[in-house]
């Protein structure tokens, strides 16, 4: 195994890929983490896959990052906890599972394959900063701002990134009369801090609206209600401040909900998107401005809707977006001639700049 410097990176690196966790996106995260761990090992790194919440029972003191390692076995171990998370949560005080922090402190860097609450929301990042653990992706404040769709919209407005008109409301003070706040049906109701379209409802009338509010507030105490943008959907990754090619997302039926996101073949994804150059440039510039508006470091992926007249709206920014080999960012990177393992390596290289 070569041991050399590669563009400022020690090679090979000892890497913990963190996945799993307790959010609604646990299973997606296990897929991302498995892909990332395989990719990094194919690049020669000593990467291990660990569930941030369930951890591992023990590790070999002298060799926690073994050269021989079975990623599939690690993924199966993590998945074996899927049905027990709710019970485990009740009994646990610390979010971090056994051996997790010890391993992360020994790693050269931690690749965050997490999605959703406690992972994507800045709390893990803040804890890691204080513990001297290096990690991929953006820091705690930008993570927290991007996790909250209400805050995100305010930051976008301040920086002239167009976003659908909308309001934030709490469970204690719901707004029933949308006309009074300048909104009319159809609207989209979404939990403030959800992901993977869990807790997102497109509603046509007052009855559907009341039902959607009730469901959204069963997940969390804050919700965003915004105008429904009828049109085409796109996403753009921004890596190191620069936009990647635009990808178009066309679900075969309905909107880009949980099923259409993860069921193979349910959605046509086209990259580069079939868009005139001026609209491509505009969307990429909004993506780069949105990245800056939220103070991003490293990388993120921003979601867009576009009306038939070419009006573009940024819905949100994802700080730890899906990273399976077929996820949106890897497809965008492929258009730039970058394969999946190289992209994973690149995200590490860029993330390490935070620590220079
Ligand atoms: N204002 C909107 N107009 C039309 N469709 C929307 C709107 N907001 C969300 N959607 C649809 O819902 C999906 C999920 O919403 P999004 O805000 O990206 O939340 P998340 O991906 O975090 O669950 C989007 O990909 C899009 O298909
Ligand atoms: Mg989204």
Short characterization:
By secondary structure, this protein is of the alpha+beta class. It has helices at about 25-40, 70-80, 85-90, 100-105, 125-130, 140-145, 150-160, 205-220, 260, 275-295, 330-335, 340-350; strands at about 5, 10, 15-20, 45-50, 110, 165-170, 185-190, 200-205, 220-225, 230-240, 240-245, 245-250, 265-270, 300-305, 310-320.
Features:
six-stranded antiparallel beta sheet; Dna Ligase, domain 1; four-stranded antiparallel beta sheet; 21% strand; D-amino Acid Aminotransferase, Chain A, domain 1; binds magnesium ion; 356 residues; alpha+beta; Rossmann fold; binds adenosine-5'-diphosphate; 12 helices; globular
Protein architecture, described:
Helix 1 runs antiparallel to helix 2 (71-79) and helix 5 (123-131) packs antiparallel against helix 6 (140-147). The two termini are 26 Å apart. Helices cover 35% and strands 21% of the residues. It contains twelve helices and 15 strands. Mean pLDDT is 95; it is low at 1-6. By secondary structure, it is α+β, with helices and mostly antiparallel strands. The chain folds into three domains: 4-137 and 340-355, Rossmann fold (3-Layer(aba) Sandwich); 146-162 and 229-319, 2-Layer Sandwich (D-amino Acid Aminotransferase, Chain A, domain 1), CATH 3.30.470; 181-226, Dna Ligase, domain 1 (2-Layer Sandwich), CATH 3.30.1490. It is globular and about 65 Å long. Strands 10, 11, 12, 13, 14 and 15 form a six-stranded antiparallel beta sheet that branches. Strand 1 (4-6) and strand 2 form a beta hairpin. It binds adenosine-5'-diphosphate (ADP) and magnesium ion. Residues 164, 188, 190, 194-197, 200, 226, 228-229, 233, 255-256, 303, 305, 315-316 line the site of adenosine-5'-diphosphate.
